[in-house]
Amino acid sequence: MKLNRMIYPLVFALAATTLATTGCKHKPIGITPLPEGGSMVGQPGGGGTLPPGDQIGQGGGVQTQIPPGGGPTAEGDFNGMGVDRTALAPDTIHFKFDSSVIPSAERSKLVMVAEALKSDASAKLLVEGNCDERGTEEYNRSLGERRALAAREALAKLDIDPMRVFTRSYGKDKPAADGHDESAWSQNRRDDFVLLHPKPGS
Predict the structure, then answer these.
(1) Distance between CA 38 and CA 184 in Å, rounded?
(2) What's phi and psi for 184, nearest 5 deg?
(3) CB atoms within 10 A of CB 36
(4) CA–CA separation, 79 vs 87, rounded Å?
């Protein structure tokens, strides 16, 4: 009888422990969900107010945002447009860590980009969003896209037709600086601006 009194509490304790360890497992933490809605300019992590356009795949998993009705269909193919990476290189804008908000100190560069587009009505623009090496590939692709779209939205507020602006995210695949410290990371958190001109005869 005494043995039964001792066994029942042990069995109960063992059953409770088994339930606790098998029935209450925590779900693994996934990638931080990206916020949606709101303006990207001046708000951390906003989703943008302009329609993003269609998405098309690029080599290496790069996703491109294009205005509806046309745009690059493969790396280097810009529907008869010539690519000029040097004209707007001094106007590259940089971001703070894990942010798609354009810092106020960088906004004068967007004015210069807008002026270049206003001076040549036939030109279009490719905005390439980039990140530093920290974070997962998927998260950095999304962050690079938000950074590129933030520039597109800011240019729209400077009276640039968003249909003239393409966006592409490279995530952390195209660093501007090698290195694994803040000096390199600060150079890699950026939007590059690529001017597109119609080729002669096109």
Answers:
(1) 31
(2) -80, -45
(3) 9
(4) 20
Angle between helices 137-157 and 107-119 (to 10 degrees): 60
Whole-number Å distance between alpha carbons of 15 and 7 = 12
Among 127, 66, 65, 132, smallest CA distance to 99 is for: 132
The two tokens of residue 165 are: 């602006």
What span, in angstroms and rounded, lies between the C-alpha atoms of 160 and 152? 9
What tokens appear for 34 in the block?
């990206």
pLDDT tens track for 152-161: 999 999 999 9
CA 157-56-80 angle, to 5 degrees, is 75
Question: In terms of pTM, does the model score above 0.70?
Answer: no
Q: Work out the pLDDT band at 46, boundaries 50, 70, 90.
A: very low
Q: What is the distance between the alpha carbons of residues 63 and 79, in angstroms, rounded to a whole number?
A: 18
Question: Strand pairing partners for 66?
Answer: 54
Of 166, 111, 173, the residue nearest 141 (C-alpha): 173
Q: Cα–Cα distance between 35 and 192 in angstroms, integer?
A: 24
Whole-number Å distance between alpha carbons of 79 and 83: 11
Q: Are the CB atoms for 34 and 144 separated by under 8 Å?
A: no
Which residue bears the tokens 């896209």? 145
**Element containing residue 159 per DSSP (H, E):** none
Q: What structural domains does the chain harbor?
A: 54-198 (3.30.1330.60)
